[in-house]
Write a structure and sequence with these properties.
The chain is an alpha/beta fold. It has helices at 6-9, 56-64, 95-108, 133-150; strands spanning 2-4, 26-29, 36-38, 73-75, 120-123, 159-162.
Length: 176
């Protein structure tokens, strides 16, 4: 499950066939199609930009090297640029929160495939730069607990948090 804002969607480009290749073992459950298709950048997030690269495919390629060759990766891209906890988008009941849970559970059950959540990757932050560390931690902890509770089989799945680079000038005291 790939969630967060523009950092997860990706704003770097252009996509290069040689640098950003597809892999037949990496699929995605797309938000636009609600079906499983070959994954390629840009991934089918809630906020899809043209000709850009995010971290999802790199995460999938790294994970492929740890699993048997007869297994694959099914990405569930559910990120949306410019969103935040402050707007309610990622809080329980918010659009992003609900869509990500619905998409993850649908991907798990897609056509009876034997899928499971092995990790959730979160990259978000600058839209919440006004939050204190305690405020951000409270919201993030609630999000992690709710995702683990509401996504089938994800009760002990790792939750990977990406950091907003401190050199960007776009981070807050509590979100770095």
């Amino acid at each position: 499950l790939l969630i967060g804002q523009s950092n997860m969607v990706g704003r770097f480009g252009p996509v290069s066939a040689s640098l950003d290749p597809t892999d037949p073992r990496i699929l995605q459950y797309g938000n636009g199609t609600s079906s499983v298709v070959l994954a390629s950048d840009p991934l089918d997030n809630l906020d899809e930009t043209s000709n850009t690269v995010g971290p999802g495919m790199s995460i999938a390629r790294a994970y492929l090297s740890t699993i048997p060759s007869n297994r694959g990766v099914l990405l569930v891209p559910s990120a949306d640029g410019g969103t935040s906890f402050g707007s309610g988008f990622w809080r329980d009941g918010g659009t992003g929160f609900e869509t990500a849970i619905t998409s993850a559970n649908a991907a798990l059950n897609y056509l009876g495939l034997d899928n499971n959540i092995v990790a959730m990757a979160w990259h978000q932050g600058e839209s919440d730069r006004g939050m204190t560390e305690a405020q951000y931690a409270t919201d993030l902890d609630a999000l992690i607990a709710a995702f683990r509770a509401e996504i089938t089989g994800a009760s002990s799945s790792p939750f990977i948090v990406g950091e907003v680079p401190t050199w960007s000038g776009q981070y807050g005291a509590g979100v770095a």
